[in-house]
Write the structure tokens for this entry.
Amino acid sequence: SMQIGRFNFDRNVFIKAKNILTNKVVKQIKWVVIDEIGPLEMNNMGLEPEFSEFVNKMKLQNDTKILLVVRESLLDSFVEKYALQEANIVSLAEFKTWCS
């Protein structure tokens, strides 16, 4: 496992998630939801580098929608790092109204 601050992460979970992100079957999926992209990814750990490769691959596909949960405090640096200036950004409050 990997200890960061008060959080303890299971490395095997990251390995499994990275394998899913690199799987070619993702092309046939209509929605991908990742909760959450956080400080680990922003510091090139966690789901990186596979997440960056996944985002770049998905930018070329119009038929797959991606829902990414990102902490508001990281939002600006996240958008810049992954070049997602064209993305639709929705606050938690707005998202809750969509779901009700």
Q: What stands out?
A: The CA atoms of residues 24 and 54 lie 10 Å apart. The chain is about 40% helix and 20% strand. The longest helix spans residues 11-22. The radius of gyration is 14 Å.
